[in-house]
Every structure is written in C-alpha cells, then in structure tokens.
Amino acid sequence: MNRRILTLMVALVPIVAFGLLLSVVTVPYVALGPGPTFNTLGEVDGKQVVDIKSTDGVAGEVVHPTSGHLNMTTVAQRDGLTFGQALLLWMSGRDQLVPRELVYPPDKSKDDIDQANTTEFRQSEDDAEYAALSYLKYPKAVTVSTVEDKGPSAGKLQPGDAIDMVNNVAVADLAAFQAEVKKTKPGDQLVIDFRRKNAPAGTTTVTLGKHPERDQGYLGIGVVDAPWALFDIEFNLANIGGPSAGLMFSLAVVDKLTTGDLNDGKFVAGTGTIDADGKVGSIGGITHKMLAAAEAGATVFMVPAENCAEALTAREDSMQLVKVDTLTTAVDALNTISAGGEPPTC
C-alpha cells in the first residue's frame, strides 16, 4: 500500500473516532435552557389559558376584559444528548448542563416522575385558584377536593362541591364537618346538603363504608376549607410550567375578575409557586426563564423574593425585576407601576 495513503488512513482514525464520539455517544447530562412563555390572559389551541365560565351566565357577568400580557415562563429540558450536542449547547452560553440524576433520580422510573409531576401540577392549579379567590374575598366553604372512584360518595358528590349541612347540622368549616363525621359508624346514612358549580344546590344520602384504619364511617372524599364561587375556573396548559406557574395563574384570575388592566397594558412576565394562602415560593431555573421573557418582549418580571439574589446575576437590564412574596404584594406592585410609582425590586 502506498505509504502516503497509509499515513492518511492512520491520521483519519482519530478523526473518525472523535466524530463517532460526538454524534453517537450520549452523556449523563440534561440541558436546561429558556423554554416557551405563555400569556395567561390569552389562548392556546383555541382555548383560554385561564377560562372562567358558567352555564348559567354568572361568570359572564363577573369576567372583565383584559389586555396586555401576564406571561408564565418555563425551562426547556433536553435529555439523551450526544457528546456533540452537549458540547454545542454548553458553548452557546444559553443552556446549562446538569447531571441527569438531579432531574431524573435513578431510584424512580420515568412513569413515577411523570405521575408526581402531574399530581403536583394539579395541586398548583387548585392553589392558584384558591389564592386568587381568597384575595378577592370570596367566602370559604367545606369544599370537596377529591372523590374516590369506587368509594361510597362516587356518583353522589363531585370535586368542587361545597358542603353546607350534614344530617341537618350546618358545617361552616372543616372542623365542624369532621366533628359530624366522627359521630358516625360504617353503614350509617349521611344526608349531605351541597352546592354545585353550574347546577342547582342539592341533597344526597351516602351510605358510609368502612375504613381499615378508622372506626367512624367512611365517605371516600377529600375535603378542604377553600374559597368558593359559583363559576368554574379551568387552566388549559396541561402539564406545562409545573407548580412555578402558580403566581401568574393567580394574577390572571384576579385580573379577569376585577375591573381595569392589572398590567396597565404592559408586557409583564414572571414565575413563582403559590400556596392556597397566597404565599409565593421560590423556583428553579429563574435565569433561563428571565432570558425567555426578555426575548419574548417582557419589560416587567415578577421574581419570588427568595430568588432575587440569583435573578440579579442574569443582568437582564431590559426588564424591571419586581420582588414579590405574596399574591397581595404582587397585585400591589402592579398597581404601583400602573400609577407611575416604584414597586419593591430585587
């Protein structure tokens, strides 16, 4: 074989090997970067992101027009990266590489993680609704949160029902409700007066079952003390955003149920978990979310107070960083901006 050809072939071996390394070999890292943003005052796939409705027209009487943006932000995740893809993403400066086990713990299956994320997301939607309605002073009621598919109350009560009386005894809060249920035993019949969204108030009789860990009768429902309104609130973003969308969901509900524009027509974006009492919690990936918001055109960004130090490292000078720790401070801050004042900032 010609010496020159042999030399060339020997020289190509490491190049080919390196090319295979870049294109075939995967790395145990996940890339985190700016994800899509969604206007909680707008639509996705023909549906309102935050849809407040009632078949009897009640919601139509209380929902007010909105404009501008209240965008929730997300972090994009890329898994199964080849060495070459990971290298390019790292060099771009837009993405962060983190060990895969931090995102997908090795002791949990993907199905387990997906199920936990779904449960957490649904709870965050409920908390966002409760926080907004509490802020707006809707009265609390003993509210059904879950109904077991094959439990004693299946087909009789529904999530969202407000329980007013048990065996002709008024139950104004969870403690009063539990006190009445504790008086029962399996096989007893419980007469429950309830209010239902989009339907007339009703009365139902439930024959109580037996719980393996309790002596009292078993209804097969979960109940919470929660603000209650006649209309339904639906969040139509599937599992996008996770619990960190809670603050922006709550702000959208408040905006739609009050007169005027909460954002004064400005492009506001933000992030933050929220609990049923309206407390705003910290989130992960805030610098990625800020970059996504800035690129979308936001001029104001709502930052959970606990994330302020990290947010300042992003140096997104195009946006005003508003520090919030509760739904009330978030609403007050937006009203302050609308009035030309200076809200709390990071």
Automatic annotation (TrEMBL):
<keyword id="KW-0720">Serine protease</keyword>
<dbReference type="InterPro" id="IPR001478">
    <property type="entry name" value="PDZ"/>
</dbReference>
<keyword id="KW-0645">Protease</keyword>
<dbReference type="GO" id="GO:0006508">
    <property type="term" value="P:proteolysis"/>
</dbReference>
<dbReference type="InterPro" id="IPR008269">
    <property type="entry name" value="Lon_proteolytic"/>
</dbReference>
<feature type="active site">
    <location>
        <position position="289"/>
    </location>
</feature>
<dbReference type="InterPro" id="IPR020568">
    <property type="entry name" value="Ribosomal_Su5_D2-typ_SF"/>
</dbReference>
<dbReference type="InterPro" id="IPR036034">
    <property type="entry name" value="PDZ_sf"/>
</dbReference>
<feature type="domain" description="Lon proteolytic">
    <location>
        <begin position="239"/>
        <end position="337"/>
    </location>
</feature>
<feature type="active site">
    <location>
        <position position="244"/>
    </location>
</feature>
<dbReference type="GO" id="GO:0030163">
    <property type="term" value="P:protein catabolic process"/>
</dbReference>
<dbReference type="InterPro" id="IPR027065">
    <property type="entry name" value="Lon_Prtase"/>
</dbReference>
<dbReference type="Pfam" id="PF13180">
    <property type="entry name" value="PDZ_2"/>
</dbReference>
<dbReference type="Pfam" id="PF05362">
    <property type="entry name" value="Lon_C"/>
</dbReference>
<keyword id="KW-0378">Hydrolase</keyword>
<dbReference type="GO" id="GO:0005524">
    <property type="term" value="F:ATP binding"/>
</dbReference>
<dbReference type="GO" id="GO:0004252">
    <property type="term" value="F:serine-type endopeptidase activity"/>
</dbReference>
<protein>
    <recommendedName>
        <fullName>endopeptidase La</fullName>
        <ecNumber>3.4.21.53</ecNumber>
    </recommendedName>
</protein>
<comment type="similarity">
    <text>Belongs to the peptidase S16 family.</text>
</comment>
<dbReference type="InterPro" id="IPR014721">
    <property type="entry name" value="Ribsml_uS5_D2-typ_fold_subgr"/>
</dbReference>
<dbReference type="GO" id="GO:0004176">
    <property type="term" value="F:ATP-dependent peptidase activity"/>
</dbReference>
